[in-house]
């Protein structure tokens, strides 16, 4: 049986001023990880070019050679999004990328709510995750004082 000295017990209990992650921050991290995983899946598809990506690029009117460029740009944005210090910059880059997806789908007159606006839904989900991770962003946006 293991016994603890009183000092070991005190050291194991977090002090009142020890920063702890709130539930909102944890939910934000989970959302951000899900967003990042989905986007990495997109990057891998663009860089490996399976048949579904080749067909999708053709349907949207993009030459297949542009898939690699799109994949690299998205990878850079996702890496920036994953680093806490550059997360906002990464989120802005991903938002621009998703705006291009909306435009490409509008051009081919894809279904509005299921296909074209999916990038918008995804972008909102991404920003919710970031704001939950960094609530001070609400002050920057003028939503909270």
Automatic annotation (TrEMBL):
Entry membrane topology: Multi-pass membrane protein
Subcellular location: Membrane
One Pfam family it belongs to: DoxX_2
TM region positions: 24-44, 64-83, 88-106, 112-132
Keywords: Membrane, Transmembrane, Transmembrane helix
One GO term describing the cellular component: membrane
InterPro entries recorded: DoxX (IPR032808)
Protein name stated in the entry: DoxX family protein
Lineage: Bacteria, Bacillati, Actinomycetota, Actinomycetes, Mycobacteriales
């Amino acid at each position: 049986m293991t016994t603890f000295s009183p000092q070991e017990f005190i050291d194991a209990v977090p002090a009142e001023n020890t920063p702890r992650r709130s539930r909102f921050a944890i939910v934000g991290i989970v959302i951000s990880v899900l967003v990042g995983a989905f986007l990495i899946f997109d990057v891998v598809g663009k860089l490996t070019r399976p048949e579904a990506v080749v067909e999708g690029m053709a349907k949207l009117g993009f030459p297949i050679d542009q898939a690699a460029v799109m994949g690299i740009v998205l990878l850079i944005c996702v890496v920036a999004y994953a680093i806490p210090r550059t997360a906002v910059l990464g989120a802005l880059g991903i938002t621009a990328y998703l705006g291009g997806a909306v435009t490409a789908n509008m051009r081919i007159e894809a279904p509005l709510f299921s296909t074209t606006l999916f990038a918008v839904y995804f972008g909102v989900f991404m920003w919710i995750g970031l704001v939950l991770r960094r609530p001070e962003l609400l002050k920057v946006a003028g939503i909270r004082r």
